[in-house]
Structure formats: structure tokens, C-alpha cells
Design goal:
0% of the residues lie in helices and 20% in strands. The chain is an all-beta fold and 90 residues long.
Length: 90
Amino acid sequence: MGDVTGYLNLRNQEISVVPAGGFDACPYTAATGLSLHDNAITAVGARAFANLAALTGLHLGHNAITWLAPEAFMGITRLEVLLLNHNRLR
């Protein structure tokens, strides 16, 4: 399944936290986009998306994020677009 490319849409799933290594078990390692907007996410852990190294777009807007681990985005070296609008970051 790792060769599946495209956009993973996980919006409106009532997700509250993306833990450290949160997508380590995700089989879609070749996905180029991930949408987690319109959830209730408050925190994103270290290397949360590292298993999705092909990501070029990550949409985390319209959540309640107040905390991002310093290493939250480590491992996604191809990222071109990161949307964090409408959160509670300071």
C-alpha cells in the first residue's frame, strides 16, 4: 500500500491530538498531501508525520492547536505548503 500517492483527507474526524510518531503506522507513505483541518487538534508531537516523507502539502488549519513539538515536522523534507491558519498558536 505504500505506493499509493495523492491526498489523504482526514478532515472533520474529531481528532484531538497528533501524537509523537502519530503516522508511523500509516501504510500510505507515498502520499503527497494530508488534510487534518476542521478537527479539534490541540497538540502535535515530535516527528508526527515523519513516516509520510513524500508530503508536499499539510493542512492543519481550523483546529485548536496551542502546542507544536519543536520536532513536529522533522522527516517531511519535501514540504512546500504548511497551513496552520485559525489555530491558537502564539
